[in-house]
């Protein structure tokens, strides 16, 4: 689904609101790491689990107690966490994002679950909806046995920023 970011949307949170969604405050690290690292004009964002109302959301595993649709929703929620971190790093400026370079999406699933890519589209689609063509990215969708707090999806990102 290709959409171009609305020109009147000057902040990431405003663009997300236009989509009928809301950014939660950027999550604090759960252990000994930082939520993001800015090196030059490249922003590396640590893994963000699916959260809703500040709590882990979409618990379980694909192929067991989480449907593909719920998994895609979990990926979208994890991507909202990425967007919260991007907003925190950029002063919530949509125009600072030159390109989403890469997403890594981790999907907790049973050994016979093989639709990680379809689940990861929940995150990928949101990036394109928010950033337009600049939201198109390289991606890995990886199946794992378990994720922090028992969530079904976690996502990380590498973002190219433009000049401040």
Would you give an account of this structure?
By secondary structure, the chain is α+β, with helices and mostly antiparallel strands. The protein has a single domain (12-22, 35-161), classed as 60s Ribosomal Protein L30, Chain: A (2-Layer Sandwich). Helices cover 28% and strands 27% of the residues. It contains 3 helices and 7 strands; from the N terminus they run αββββαβαββ. It has helices at residues 12-18, 68-90, 116-131, and strands at residues 36-39, 42-49, 51-52, 55-56, 97-108, 138-144, 153-161. A 5-stranded mixed beta sheet has the order 1-2-7-5-6. It has a two-stranded antiparallel sheet with strand order 3-4. A hairpin with a 2-residue loop joins strand 1 (36-39) and strand 2 (42-49). Helix 2 (68-90) packs parallel to helix 3 (116-131). The longest helix is centred in the middle third of the chain and has 23 residues, at 68-90. The model is unreliable at 1-9 (pLDDT under 50).
Question: Which tags fit this structure?
Answer:
164 residues, alpha+beta, 60s Ribosomal Protein L30, Chain: A, two-stranded antiparallel ribbon, 3 helices, 28% helix, globular
Number of strands: 7
Cα radius of gyration in angstroms: 15 Å
Helix content: 25-40%
Full CATH superfamily name: RutC-like
Break the fold down into its secondary structure elements and pairings.
Blueprint: H1 12-18, E1 36-39, E2 42-49, E3 51-52, E4 55-56, H2 68-90, E5 97-108, H3 116-131, E6 138-144, E7 153-161
Parallel strand pairs: 5-6
Antiparallel strand pairs: 1-2, 2-7, 3-4, 5-7
Helix pairs in contact: 2-3
């Amino acid at each position: 689904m290709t959409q171009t970011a609305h020109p009147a949307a000057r902040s990431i949170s405003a663009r997300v609101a236009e989509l009928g969604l809301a950014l939660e405050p950027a999550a604090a690290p759960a252990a000994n790491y930082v939520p993001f690292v800015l090196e030059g004009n490249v922003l590396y964002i640590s893994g963000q689990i699916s959260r809703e109302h500040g709590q882990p959301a979409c618990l379980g595993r694909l192929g067991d107690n989480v449907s593909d649709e719920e998994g895609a929703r979990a990926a979208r929620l994890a991507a909202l966490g990425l967007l919260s971190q991007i907003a925190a790093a950029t002063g919530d400026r949509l125009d600072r994002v030159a390109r989403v370079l890469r997403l890594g999406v981790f999907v907790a699933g049973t050994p016979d679950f093989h639709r990680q890519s379809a689940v990861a589209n929940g995150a990928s689609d949101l990036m394109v909806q928010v950033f337009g063509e600049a939201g198109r990215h390289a991606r890995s969708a990886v199946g794992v046995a378990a994720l922090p707090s028992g969530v079904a999806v976690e996502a990380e990102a590498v973002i190219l920023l433009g000049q401040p």
